[in-house]
Specification:
heterodimer, A: alpha+beta, four-stranded antiparallel beta sheet, 5 helices, 23% strand, elongated, B: 3 domains, three-stranded antiparallel beta sheet
């Protein structure tokens, strides 16, 4: 084999390397990013879920009920189902907004202040109800996390807020979208101020704090 | 190196293609993000509309609560207007508030709503089940403006009507309360029946009626509960049980008393009286038969007398006929006695479980009016026995005439036949009373006790004639008619006295003790309705201010503690008539309130927060007195005290 032969082999090898590189580059090229498509689908799906939560009564998902906790006032005699609260015609977002109002959290010096209230069980029951409802709507298509939260009312020594979360992130890999729904709390600003004052002993108006009576409901969808 | 050069060219080409593809993908991603952003904006718009719809719902909740809590301030139409007006105000306030809340929370949202004065009224209409549909409009020019995050897109949409389903059965509560108020006269009816029951039992069984204030209160409270139960399918059973437990006995014993009397009260039955009358009619018809036979016998004797001169055979035949008619008349008299005995058997057979029939039997068979006044049984027995004996003697006289007809002794025949005809006339006639018995009766206006003498028609066998027997039986029938008329006029039937078992069992329960106000407690924990449908809880609050009793029978007017006697001589019965009016006055602020137990949906302030409460419909009743009249007619004497 002479020099010419060696040059020929080298030329073929370089050609092979270049062709392989080009092929590799072509392999990675796709006109559409599949992640964007998934995100788009997830976003649209999340809106549909939020729309459904806002427009479907609890009855259509098996009904929602809870019992008033009467231990906060031991003198109250409870007979039969008097303490039962069946809210079958309320929409799920109405239930969320009412739960937020009825179960506002109070933090004093960074620790949660335990307030005994008659509607405590609603919070827990609603989380269970929401979980089963979202499981039914979303099924196994996505992992999800639904958060409902209000702005923190920082009154100096006390902080009042609401936060609730239900999630199923089993086998979840990537977050695809986050969609938010704004809900107003079901009372007027004055009533809410009174409510907060009853809970904390601090009048938010006098404390110069402007309450934001909006509940943000955020739905995250995750790929599986 | 031609291959290497070609390879480089290919690589450059591929790099170009990849670059192009990346650019295209980037552009598409940007476009996708824009589309997602646009659709998010539209979804946001729909969500805010949904929130406005919810705002309408809470505005109507609030208006409903406030108006229904003083429902009696309005008629149905004005009440609806008041709810619509209030709801409009609250909705306007809230939507205006929402605008500022949204803007502060998220600067992309602007809700432009013109001033509060231009808001169209909320309209409310009834839907199935007594629920409500509210339609709220926003003022003309109301707009919702949304911007995308990068301000590249802005959407403006006019806001028009929103419709919200209100999950409170206002219309059902209104309809039920209207029914309760419209028919509150039923309370007095039920109360009257129970007072009658109580008095009837005491009059018949104890011979003394106590006009007892505490019992009347308990009965009135129960009557109120029965009316509630009949209207709402439930009652304020805790309150009633508590009131029944006040005083002696406790609620269960008072209820047992009620149930017992529901079973034992069997007023004079018109059917029974009619049957007794039928036996009397049969006895009278037998008497008519006897009278007809005697008249025929009389005619035969006269014909025999006429035939005496011409044919003794004809005379004997006529006399034989006369004797046969007298024998038939005697059979009819015996039949009369049999009919009357059947009457007594009928009454006796019903007297073992019926105090009225027992008293009637005693009256028919013993000297109940006075020792000097023979019973109807005695009179009928003596009368029929006397008439039978007379008829037997008559038969003997006619046999004598047959013997005489064989002789020529014209004068003896005429004399005996005249005596026989005279005897027949005497048997057919009604004898005048020769004995009189004195009684006290109440007569005049105002009534006064006066002595009255009553004739006795049959006191031994010698007074027994067909005419007298007929007179006595006809008068007995008249007395029975009078008794039936009085009974039908005043006495209720036992069917009306049934009280629902479920209600009775609730009233017999132990009511809880209320530390807080009872009305506030019911708002929070409405008692479970007795009937599942329509699912309404009931509350009432009233206090009895006074109860007055006023006697209205003549003896009562005269201040006598005994009932007024109404003697029915011919059947030996004295009807003891007691009549009094009871007037019950209630304290002011009589409250009737019902709760939509099945829908505890309204958020209301409670303690240091809010709770879900059912819609309450509260009615303050006018403080009109309740007045009833109790009439007790007994065949046994009784007194009335109180």
């Amino acid at each position: 084999m002479g020099e010419q032969g060696f040059g020929y082999i080298t030329d073929m090898l370089v050609f092979s390397v270049l062709i392989s590189t080009a092929a590799l580059m072509l392999t990675g090229m796709a006109p559409v990013d599949p992640r964007v498509d998934s995100a788009r689908y997830a976003s649209s799906f999340a809106h549909s879920v939020l729309y459904l939560l806002q427009n479907t009564s609890a009855e259509q998902f098996g009904g929602f009920e809870y019992k008033l906790d009467t231990e906060f006032e031991p003198d109250l005699p409870v007979v039969g189902d008097s303490a039962k609260r069946e809210l079958r015609y309320k929409t799920i977002t109405q239930l969320l907004a009412e739960d937020a109002l009825l179960n506002l959290h109070v933090d004093i010096k960074g620790a949660e202040f335990q307030v005994r209230r008659p509607n405590e069980r609603m919070d827990e029951k609603l989380r269970i109800f929401l979980k089963s409802t979202l499981d039914r709507i979303i099924g196994g298509r996505f992992g999800y996390r639904l958060r409902a939260r209000t702005e923190v009312a920082d009154l100096g020594s006390a902080r009042v807020h609401f936060e609730s979360e239900v999630a199923d992130l089993t086998r979840a890999r990537t977050q695809l979208c986050t969609e938010t729904l704004m809900l107003s709390l079901p009372v007027s600003r004055e009533e809410l101020a009174w409510h907060i004052e009853e809970l904390t002993g601090i009048d938010p108006n006098e404390a110069g704090f402007e309450i934001d009576p909006i509940l943000e409901v955020t739905l995250e969808l995750w790929s599986r | 190196m031609p291959f290497s050069a070609a390879g480089v060219l290919i690589v450059l080409l591929v790099v170009g293609m990849v670059g192009q593809a990346a650019w295209v993908r980037h552009q598409r991603s940007l476009s996708t993000v824009d589309k997602v952003s646009d659709s998010a904006l539209l979804a946001f718009m729909v969500e805010i509309r949904g929130d406005i719809k919810t705002a309408l719902k809470y505005a109507v909740y609030r208006a409903l609560w406030e108006v229904s809590k003083r429902a009696d301030d309005y008629d149905d139409v004005n009440r609806m207007h008041a709810i619509e007006q209030l709801a409009t105000g609250y909705f306007a306030e809230r939507v205006t508030e929402l605008g500022s809340w949204y803007s502060k929370h998220d600067s992309r949202v602007e809700l432009d709503v013109p001033g509060l004065n231009t808001w169209p009224s909320v309209n409310i209409e009834e839907v199935d089940g007594g629920y409500m549909l509210a339609c709220g409009g926003l003022p003309e020019g109301s707009r919702l403006r949304l911007k995308s995050r990068d301000n590249s897109l802005s959407v403006v949409t006019p806001l028009e009507n929103v419709v919200a389903f209100i999950d409170s059965r206002y219309f059902l509560l209104q309809e039920q309360m209207d029914e309760f108020v419209k028919r509150r006269g039923d309370i007095a009816t039920w109360w009257g029946i129970m007072e009658y029951l109580a008095a009837w039992g005491e009059a018949w069984l104890k011979g003394k009626v106590d006009l007892d204030d505490s019992r009347s209160r308990a009965l009135f409270e129960t009557a109120w509960g029965i009316h509630e139960f009949n209207t709402f399918g439930s009652a304020d059973y805790w309150t009633i049980a508590e009131k029944l437990a006040d005083g002696t006995g406790g609620s269960s014993s008072k209820l047992a008393w009620l149930k017992e009397h529901t079973v034992t009260v069997t007023p004079i039955s018109a059917v029974d009286v009619d049957t007794i009358r039928e036996y009397i009619d049969l006895a009278l018809s037998s008497l008519e038969g006897a009278a007809a036979n005697l008249k025929e016998a009389k005619r035969c004797i006269r014909l025999a007398e006429d035939a005496k001169a011409s044919s003794s055979e004809n005379t004997r035949r006529m006399l034989k006929n006369a004797a046969d008619h007298v024998a038939d008349a005697r059979d009819e008299i015996l039949a009369t006695k049999d009919r009357f005995d059947q009457l007594l058997e009928f009454v006796e057979s019903h007297s073992s479980n019926n105090v009225v029939m027992d008293a009637l039997y005693q009256s028919f068979t013993s000297r109940s009016l006075s020792e000097d006044y023979p019973s109807l049984k005695e009179q009928i027995e003596l009368g029929t026995k006397g008439v039978s004996a007379e008829l037997f003697r008559l038969e003997r006289s006619i046999e004598d005439l047959v013997e005489l007809s064989k002789d020529e002794a014209e004068s003896s025949f005429s004399e005996i036949s005249a005596q026989t005809i005279s005897s027949i006339d005497l048997i057919l006639s009604r004898s005048d009373p020769e004995r009189w018995v004195t009684f006290t009766v109440y007569a005049g206006d105002p009534p006064k006790p006066t002595e009255e003498s009553i004739p006795v028609y049959i006191w031994d066998e010698s007074n027994g004639t067909i005419g007298t027997l007929k007179f006595v039986l006809e008068k007995a029938r008249e007395d029975l008619n009078q008794m039936k008329t009085l009974s039908q006029q005043y006495e209720p039937t036992s069917v009306e006295l049934e009280i629902d078992e479920e209600l009775v069992s609730r009233l017999a329960g132990n009511p809880p003790e209320f530390e807080t106000g009872r009305e506030e407690f019911y708002e929070l924990m409405p008692p479970q309705p007795i009937h599942r449908s329509p699912g309404v809880s009931v509350f009432h609050d009233f206090e009895v201010k006074s109860i007055t009793y006023r006697r209205e029978d003549p003896a009562g007017w005269c201040g006598s503690p005994t009932a007024t006697p109404v003697p029915l001589w011919f059947i030996g019965v004295t009807l003891w008539w007691g009549q009094w009016e009871i007037t019950l006055e209630l304290d002011q602020n009589v409250v009737e309130e019902i709760f939509d137990y099945d829908n505890p949906t309204l958020l209301r302030p409670y303690g240091f927060g809010h709770v879900h409460k059912p819609l309450a419909y509260r009615w303050e009743m006018p403080d009109e007195p309740f007045s009833i009249r109790v009439v007790v007619i007994s065949l046994r004497p009784f007194s009335i005290s109180g």
